[in-house]
Please model this.
Amino acid sequence: MSSVIASARFSVLDRSRTREGHTGAEALRDTVRLAQEAERLGFHRFWVSEHHGVPGVAGSAPTVLAAAVAGATHTIRVGTGGVMLPNHRSLVVAEQFGVLESLFPGRIDMGLGRSVGFTDGVRRALGRGKDAADADDFAGQLQELLGWFRGGSPTGVRARPSEGLTVPPFVLAMGEGAEIAARAGLPMVIGDLRDREKLRRGVDRYRAAFRPSLWASEPYVVISGTVAVAGTPEAARRLLVPEAWSMAYARTHGVFPPLPPADEVEDRAMTAKERGLYESGLTGQLAGTEEQVAHELESVLKETGAQEVLVTTSTYDRTALLDSYRRLAGIVADSRQER
Model:
C-alpha cells in the first residue's frame, strides 16, 4: 500500500439523493445513518450539501442537516459542502455556524460555494440571478462572512454567538474559485477526479497564489469526487450507473430525477444523446476493486499532493454503497498499518 494514502485524510460528502420509490424524509435519515457509519469507519469529516428545488435531492438546508448529523455522532467533523453564499446574507450564515460550533465545539467545518439555483424558476424563487455567482461578488461575500467571526461591522452589529469562535472555512473551487481561496488564504476543495489535467492546473494555481491568513498558514488541498469500491470491477461499475443516468437525464430534460435501480437503467432504451452522456458519466470514474482503487488513489494523490480526499458517491443500492465505503476505509486502514 502507498504511503501517500496512509498520510491523507479521507472524508465523505453526502448529497441526500432520493431514490425511486422512496421519500425525501427517507433520504435525509439515510444521510444521518451514513454519517454514523462513516464515523465508525474512521472517516475524518462528514459534509452535507445545498440544493434547492431539485426533485432528486432532499438536502436543501445544509446547516439544519449538519445539526442533525452532529447530534447523531460523537467524534467525526461535520460541515457543509457547501453553503452557497449568493443565496444567503453573510450575517445569517455566520450566526448559523456560530450556533453549530457552540453546540458541537471543535467539530464544525464551514464549506462555502458560489453556485446559484439549478433553474431559472429556482433562481427567481431565491431572488437571485445568474450574475449572483460573480467571482468578485463571492470574494467580497466571503470576506464579509469571515469578518463576523473576527468581531463586529461598520454598523456596530455583532454576530451572536459567532464572534470569537473559530469555524474552519473551506472554499469550493469552481472556475476562479482556486484563486479566490488562495487570495483569502483558505483551504480549497476541488474536483472532479476524472479530469486529472484540470485538477492539477487548479491545484497549481492555488498553491502559486496562496497568501497565509489567520485561517491557514499554508495551502490545504481537498480533492473531491466519486470513489466506488466493490469485489469486482463490474460490481463497482454498477454502483455508478444510477447517478450516471440521472445526470444524463438532467442534461437532456432539464430535470434532475431520483436515482433509479441499476437494472432499470441498463434495460432502458436511450436516445443517442442520452446514451452518449450516460456512457461519459461512467468513464474515468475512480471505481474498481480494492487493488485497482488503491492504485488510482495513489496516482492522483501523488499528482496533486492533496492532503485530503472528499468522496461523494451516490447510488440506488444503499447496501452496496455502505459496502463501498467499508472497502475504502479498509484500503486506508491497511495502508496505515503497513506504513
Remarks:
- The first strand starts at residue 9 and ends at 14.
